[in-house]
């Protein structure tokens, strides 16, 4: 079966990751759901197998020791990983691309060990008082002698429980602009265990059990100039250059998961009998399936199309926002419909449907809520017309 | 030593097979196809022989429709060095029979002069389990079928065979045809660097005419039907009840 625009090589990448997820991730999902933890030896096993397969840090350029996948190829990897538990696929490591901004000693200390799978990273931006409004951040770094002193709290920090170091965005000043005061932001690299820096458990979330959100506390945490990633006050530049494309990841993962959920719904509709016939014979069910697969295909192609724009060097901000919005909302509708087709059994934890439904909820919130994506889309269209 | 591995493109083992309405076969239109799982084991074994320094080249060959190219690319991505595609059919529903396949493979062997042929014991689509044996007859080479262990040592190979009720170990002379069983090894995933390299590896295209083989089918498929559906089970409350039910069913 071929998909529009994809080569045999693309299909082989996707098939390989899909088999990996089916054989190395699915069998351990129940354990993670039950305990909310990933056993360290299992994490290490997934990581080692990923390294052996040459897929670890496949999003990094070959010159840095990665596999040099382009955006389309990487989206296919993310799409297939999206089928599996995020707590587990986390160890199919894809370090933050932002580490490509490392310079000098940072390369040997952070970037390269992250690419080799020796050190894990996590990104910290969100704060209790600064969610969608990044500029509202209260975490600060101030000059003291030749050092920086960090104070404040970050929350919802995914991956921080396993991270050896964090990439942290903090405010380093404020400018007055005609539209009010505007924070200057700087990016820092900070090691786990650094004095004045602690990582603690966050909240219990309904989505993605075992993929923990952590809280970071900075209490007079002293960092040298060498810990600054990019330029001082250049946090937004670093963000715009490197975090621009990460929303595609949410879109791609939503598509992969939606396909997995769809297969459950399709099989159930073809097997379950009520009123003397397979429930798939009722249009109330079959038309739902028709709508589900149509939406999934559309989300898949929309996501790959924006990845292709990035590969071609075309502007894609609006398109990525559309893909993230549509794919995550498609996943919500698909998981909801899949439960409806399963009836009461869909809500029981004997089936993974209730988990897919819970996991789907966060996709419309993180990496920019649906509302932020709609804002980006409409602003880009209207601004061009002077509105 | 060169190892030749024939691979077949078959319906993916995960796909629920549907019989065509006219009973002439199963529906293969728009269905996921993959490498025959036993052939994957054969490719894996060949690559392991190469890694162990006992083989210096692994050549994969597929006979069938043009799309078998994808199957060969998978073999190349796993680690085979080059591939030969013999385009013998236009229609995916036209399954080339074992004797024709064996004759073409004989032609490939004459050209390539491998020291060993590693093949799946059978393809999971038609379960013929005949090609390896026919090829051994055509070449006059030794054969070791249903291998669950293989040890190649110079001019001989020791093959542990899965036979009814146990294992049989035989020593055969090389060159040889070895067909592999499920427990021989666990095939690897294609690694990302190998997937990227696979495209650049040579893939030659041939036709049956190049080997002077007529691939017209000699067998007639009279009918194909779904297996009988299994009756639903019941849950029993105790061992006593279980024994009683088994007695009723005449099973004990």
TrEMBL record, chain A:
Keywords: FAD, Flavoprotein, Oxidoreductase. It is an enzyme of class 1 (oxidoreductase). Its cofactor is FAD. Its EC number is 1.3.99.-. Residues 234-381 form the Acyl-CoA dehydrogenase/oxidase C-terminal domain. GO terms for molecular function: acyl-CoA dehydrogenase activity; flavin adenine dinucleotide binding. The keyword Flavoprotein applies. Residues 7-118 form the Acyl-CoA dehydrogenase/oxidase N-terminal domain. Residues 122-221 form the Acyl-CoA oxidase/dehydrogenase middle domain. PANTHER family: ACYL-COA DEHYDROGENASE (PTHR43884:SF40). Belongs to the acyl-CoA dehydrogenase family. This is Acyl-CoA dehydrogenase. It comes from Pseudooctadecabacter jejudonensis. The gene is mmgC_2.
Automatic annotation (TrEMBL), chain B:
Heterodimer of an alpha and a beta subunit. Pfam families: ETF. GO terms for biological process: carboxylic acid catabolic process. Belongs to the ETF beta-subunit/FixA family. The electron transfer flavoprotein serves as a specific electron acceptor for other dehydrogenases. It transfers the electrons to the main respiratory chain via ETF-ubiquinone oxidoreductase (ETF dehydrogenase). This is Electron transfer flavoprotein subunit beta. Signal peptide: none annotated. GO terms for molecular function: electron transfer activity. Residues 23-215 form the Electron transfer flavoprotein alpha/beta-subunit N-terminal domain. InterPro entries: ET-Flavoprotein_bsu_CS, ETF_a/b_N, ETF_b, ETF_beta_N, Rossmann-like_a/b/a_fold. Its cofactor is AMP. PANTHER family: ELECTRON TRANSFER FLAVOPROTEIN BETA-SUBUNIT, ELECTRON TRANSFER FLAVOPROTEIN SUBUNIT BETA.
């Amino acid at each position: 079966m071929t998909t529009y625009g994809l080569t045999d090589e693309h299909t082989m990448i996707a098939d390989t990751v899909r088999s990996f997820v089916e054989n190395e991730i699915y069998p351990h999902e129940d354990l993670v759901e039950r305990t909310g933890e990933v056993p360290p030896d299992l994490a290490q096993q997934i990581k080692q197998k990923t390294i052996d397969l040459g897929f670890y840090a496949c999003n990094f350029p070959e010159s840095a020791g990665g596999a040099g996948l382009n955006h389309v190829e990487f989206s296919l990897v993310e799409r297939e990983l999206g089928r599996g538990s995020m707590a587990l696929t986390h160890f199919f490591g894809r370090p933050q691309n932002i580490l490509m901004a490392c310079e000098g000693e940072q390369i040997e200390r952070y970037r390269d060990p992250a690419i080799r799978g020796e050190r894990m990273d996590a990104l910290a931006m969100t704060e209790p008082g600064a969610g969608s409004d990044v500029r509202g951040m209260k975490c600060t770094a101030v000059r003291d002698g030749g050092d920086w002193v960090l104070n404040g709290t970050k929350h919802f920090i995914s991956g921080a429980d396993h991270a050896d170091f964090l990439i942290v965005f903090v405010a380093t000043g404020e400018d007055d602009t005609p539209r009010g005061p505007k924070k200057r932001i700087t990016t820092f690299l900070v090691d786990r265990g650094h004095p004045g820096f602690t990582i603690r458990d966050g909240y219990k979330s309904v989505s993605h059990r075992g993929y923990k959100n952590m809280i970071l506390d900075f209490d007079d945490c002293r960092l040298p100039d060498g810990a600054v990633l990019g330029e001082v006050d250049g946090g937004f530049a670093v963000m715009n250059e490197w975090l621009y494309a990460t929303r595609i990841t949410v879109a791609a993962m939503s598509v992969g998961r939606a396909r997995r959920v769809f297969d459950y719904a399709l099989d159930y509709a073809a097997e379950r009998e009520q009123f003397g016939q397979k429930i798939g014979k009722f249009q109330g069910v079959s038309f739902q399936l028709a709508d589900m697969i149509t939406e999934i295909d559309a989300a898949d192609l929309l996501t790959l199309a924006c990845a292709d724009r990035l590969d071609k060097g075309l502007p894609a901000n609006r398109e990525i926002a559309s893909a993230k919005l549509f794919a995550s909302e498609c996943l919500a509708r698909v998981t909801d419909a899949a439960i409806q087709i399963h009836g009461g059994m869909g809500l029981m934890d004997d089936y993974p449907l209730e988990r897919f439904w819970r996991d789907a909820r966060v996709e419309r919130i993180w990496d920019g809520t649906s509302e932020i994506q709609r804002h980006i889309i409409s602003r880009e269209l209207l601004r061009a017309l002077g509105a | 030593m060169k190892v030749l591995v024939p691979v077949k493109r078959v319906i993916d083992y995960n796909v629920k097979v549907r019989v065509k309405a006219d009973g002439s076969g199963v529906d293969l239109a728009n269905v996921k196809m993959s490498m025959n799982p036993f052939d994957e084991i054969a490719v894996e074994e060949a690559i392991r022989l190469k890694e162990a320094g006992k083989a210096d080249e692994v050549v994969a060959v597929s006979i069938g429709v043009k799309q078998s190219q994808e199957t060969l690319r998978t073999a190349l991505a796993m680690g085979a060095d080059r591939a030969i595609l013999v385009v013998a059919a236009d229609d995916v529903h036209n399954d080339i029979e074992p004797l024709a396949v064996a004759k073409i493979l004989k032609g490939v062997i004459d050209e390539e002069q491998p020291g060993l042929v590693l093949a799946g014991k059978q393809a999971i689509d038609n379960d013929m389990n005949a090609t390896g044996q026919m090829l051994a007859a055509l070449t006059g080479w030794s054969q070791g079928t249903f291998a669950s262990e293989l040890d190649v040592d110079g001019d001989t190979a020791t093959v542990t065979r899965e036979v009814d009720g146990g294992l049989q170990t035989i020593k055969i002379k090389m060159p040889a045809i070895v067909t592999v069983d499920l427990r021989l090894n666990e095939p690897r995933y294609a690694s990302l660097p190998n997937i990227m390299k696979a495209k650049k590896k040579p893939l030659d295209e041939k036709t049956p005419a190049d080997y002077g083989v007529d691939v017209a089918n000699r067998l007639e498929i009279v009918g194909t039907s779904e297996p009988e559906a299994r009756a639903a089970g019941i849950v029993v409350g105790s061992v006593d009840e279980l024994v009683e039910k088994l007695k009723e069913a005449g099973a004990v």
